[in-house]
Every structure is written in C-alpha cells, then in structure tokens.
Amino acid sequence: MSDRYEPRIVGFLCNWCSYAGADLAGTSRLKVPANLRVVRVPCSGRINPLFIFKALEEGADGVMVSGCHPGDCHYISGNRYAKRKLAVLRRLLDWVGIEPERIHFTWLSASEGARYAVEVAEFVDKVRALGRHNPMARQGVAS
Amino acid sequence: MNQSLRETVKRLFTEGKVKSVLGYREHPLSKAVVATLITRPEDADTLIFDDRCVQNLARALTRDLPLPVGIVVKGCDGCAVSMRITEGDFAREQIVAIAVACAGVRADGKTLDERCQRCEMHVSPLADVTVGDTSSLPKPEKTRAETIAKIKAMTPAERFAFWQKAFEPCTHCYACREVCPLCNCAVCVTDQNAPRWIEQTAKPSSNLMWHMIRAFHHAGRCVDCGECQRACPEGVPMHLLDLCLAEDVEELFDFKTGVKQGGKWPFLLFNPEDPDSWLGGPHRG
Questions:
Q1: What is the ipTM of this complex?
Q2: A97 to B249: CB separation less than 8 angstroms, yes or no
Q3: What is the assigned CATH class of domain A9-130?
Q4: Domain boundaries, chain B
Q5: Chain B: residue whose CA lies nearest to A45
Q6: Mean pLDDT per 10-residue section of chain A, whose length is 143 residues
Q7: What pTM, to 2 d.p., does this model score?
Q8: B contact residues 91-120, partner A, Cβ 8 Å cutoff
Q9: What stretch of H or E contains B75?
Q10: Sign of the torsion angle spanned by Cα atoms A48, A51, A56, A61
C-alpha cells in the first residue's frame, strides 16, 4: 500500500457508447484505474445536474461524464442537449468557487476502449493534482 | 396614472376582453399595497399603481382564474408572464397584459430597489395595452455586469467562502421559491424524498445544494425581478447567483430571457455548431 492519495471519482457513462467502451477496455485487458465508480445511464442527456451536485456533496472528488459522439446518440440528440446543460453547470461550479476541472466531459464511442482507459487515467491524475479538498463535500464524509 | 389604469381596465371589461384582472390595491386598513383580483368592472376603482407595487403578480397567475385574465405588469413582471407563455403555462390569448410605465419601485418606501437601479425594462415587452407615460423613464444607474463584477474578481477559494457566508443564514423556508414567478415545478426537487436529493436541514452542504440547484433551474429563465431576494427573511443574496448565470446564458446561447416572446428556452434547443470548448478545452479525437 502506498500512501498516495487516491481520489474517488464517479463516472456517468451512457449505456450505448461509453459504457460499452468501458466494457471493451475490460475485455481487452486494459488497465483502468479503480478510482472510477461507474454509474450507467441511458443517455448523457439523462444526466440531471443534480446527479453531479449530489456526487460532489457525497464526497466524490471528481465526476466524469461520457456520452456518444455528436451525431451518434442512440436517441438522436440527447448528447447535444447534455452539452448545453453541462456547459452551464461548469460555469455554475466556477461561480460558487468549486474547481470546474473536477468535472470531465468526453465523447466516447463503443469502439474506443483504449481511449477510455487513457481518459480515465488522465482524469484521475488531474483530480489527484487538484487535491483531496472538494469544498462541496458534506461534513463527515471521508475522502 | 391610477385614473387611466382604472379606465383602461373598465374598458377591457366592457369590451369583453377580460373576465378578471390581477392588479394592486391599497389595503383599506393597513395602507399596504396588496395584490388583488377583480372580476367586476366597478371594482376597477380600487386599482392603483405606484412605486409601492413591489410584488410580481406573474406568480399569482393560475389556470383556474376566470380567463382571459388581465394582469397589471411592470417591465420585469411582463418578462415573467412572457416566459410563462413561452413555457406553455398559458396560451397567449388567455392573458391580457396591461403594461404600466414603471420608474422603479421602493420596497422600503424610500430608496429605489437594487433590481430597479439596473433595470433596462421599464415597460413590459409583452403589452396588450400600455398605461402611463413611457417617454420619460429613468436610465439604468448600473449594469448587471457591475453587480457581479465583485464576484468575478474573487479567487475560487474566496468565492466559495463568500457563498458559504452568504448562504449561512438560510433556514430553508423556501420563501424564495414561493415568490418566484417561474418556480412552477409540480413537485419541487427539494420536496422529493425518494430519493431525498436535497436535505432540508439548514447546514452548509444542503444550503449550497439548494441554492445551486435553484440557480441552475433559473438559468436562462430568471427575469431579474428580484422577488426572491426581497422575500427572503434572512437577507440571503441568492439572486446574485441567478445574475451570474444569466450572464453566462446570454453569452453562451445569445438568449435574453422574456424578451424574445416565443423564443424557446436554450436548454430545449441545441445547435450542431455548439463548440466543444464549452466543456473545458478542445475535444481530442
């Protein structure tokens, strides 16, 4: 056991692309950091900003959101709506003084297992650099 | 002003354009200005409009009023009514907007409200009839950008500390929600308890959750009527956060709330050209 700080990250992955991409990373025996706890959602458009706020409040150090590439959405355009919501969400976090870098958004298709592994590893490193202190976390939540 | 308002309302009744009118009247005993609903033309003589008419009557519009309903609107109220029509709460023909020339209101009876100091919308953009002299209305004394500049100038840590302190007195009474003309959800997210998204106890984390989600729900919808802040018994400056987001929504989506009547809320639309840079840096393929 090293003493290195291991951030906890919640990942909201779209069922149709990103979740399958994560699956592919697994079946390809790629090494993906275990810091990411995946929540499968039907579409990135399903992600209510509340989910992200709640994850942060409950002590997550970062939140990763991943949906289909623009034009590939199973529901035609859910990911494009998601983009607008998340753009404003990032700004809101910035306004209240929470680093918007704790939210990572990426388009990821079912065939991009290798890129999934890279994206997760990079994001984990980024959050590790931001540090343990997620100001939004509820008191008493261990991190 | 009062005379022409009363005559206008009577005319609307006799022409059959309205079945009821929402307006302001002075309470006979307390002399306070209160909201009133009139359904007979003779009651129009109780209506008034002056700088004590602080309430936003758009909140009082419900579908069980005798329709079509006339509503006395200041500039900000008119934007809120416009927004409610845009969102499908009412059909355009169910509402008769009686726009009054508003030079600003004084909630404390002396100084111009802060919201009115930056008002650019003294006459409602939604107006079926207009009452009063619209030619000599004051220019805004300051801008929204100036109002939020102090927050913009802070570091993230300072901002966080600022909001923690600002939200600290919040008792979760939800007066801000009750008074908001656009808080129309059938079940408010803070009242949902399966799952319980936002705890209703007053403590730092739930204060922040409530005010963040509140601001998010108002992004691109808030008409800057400032009622939330006026209604707050603890003086929490939650409206400031709405203003911050309003700035962003205007910048990102080129959308000015309540002005483009019929223009859809930007979250219900998308543009294939929406840049990936919104999500923090260019997309990597």
A1: 0.89
A2: no
A3: alpha beta
A4: 13-131, 144-267
A5: B267
A6: 82 94 94 94 93 91 92 90 91 90 91 94 92 73 55
A7: 0.90
A8: none
A9: helix B75-86
A10: negative
